[in-house]
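Researcher: Please predict.
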Amino acid sequence: MDPSKKYTTIHYHKYLELDKLLDSQKTRSGQFEDKAAHEEMLFIIVHQVYELWFKQIIHEITSVCDMFRDNQVDEKNLGVAVSRLDRVEEILKLTIQQIGVLETMTPLDFLDFRNYLFPASGFQSYQFRIIESMLGLREKDRMTYNGHSYKIVFTEDQQAILTDVETRGSLFELIENWLERIPFLNYEEFNFLDSYSKAVNKMLAQEQKAIEETDYLSDKMKAMRLKMLGGTNTYFKHVLSKDAHDEMLKSGEIKLSYKATISALLIKLYRDHPILQMPYRLITNLTDIDELLTTWRYRHAQMVKRMIGNKVGTGGSSGHDYLVQTAEKHKIFNDFHNISSLLIPRSELPDLPANMIKELGFYYSEQSNNNGAS
């Protein structure tokens, strides 16, 4: 483009390419019937809007992944990453709300044009598969599509891009690598894991004693409470024993590495310290995104059940049943959710050394104040 035209005026209509955008709703029923099915326009627009939002999500996640590809993450980027993942969350909330708009169409309305959709299916949304792969959903963890790879519905070029996305490093893997580099696990005289282990044993002993000595619970209720409490051989086992963690990794029960898990636990426990607040928000973003995607999948499944009951989907899947199973199986950041089972009360947290507290806070040294620099 001519540089001299860089800041020339442009019309709203031209800038947004509205001629292309508003001319892209082609009803199939209108091509084969004297009168198009009224509800098909809504069906097309809702799904086109989904694809536009998917494009924006890909734009945001790509930028966040790029920030974490270097072994040295610029701390200033954490705030930017959090704000962009916040945006992804808000978009996902909108995609859930859009299902309500689609449900203003009744099942009978849908039947007016459903036969024209075969074999098109939301399963063929290339951009949504890109999002899943960029976040960290791998093919071995996916539901198969009628016994075949999910990639079978895409062109060879699209399959190649999906494979490239999987091999380049997902957001899950990049965050895992970043967590493994967190420097506070062994800080001078403070060994986090050792101190945490002692705090867990102390907490469990106190709670177990309180349950056993209370007069308000029956023996049956005491046994149930003790089972809920767990012990170092249940919830805490895989962080107190690297061997136990590695076995769970091998079996596929968990995906997050041992060191990354310990780092995420430290961040969650000591999140009130200023330096750890932004990493805590980042981890929260990941669990929120996972939860919103799961909510969207369940909500989508319920909408399909409402519209077609137990019929087979237009793309040949089992419809509602398939969608429900993906909601349960296609969770990506489940390991960050599970860290909640490892948390202990603030009152039981091991005290941090004074030097470490200083490193985890925002402070100005006397020399820095004199020089006017932080």
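Model: The beta strands are 186-187, 190-191.
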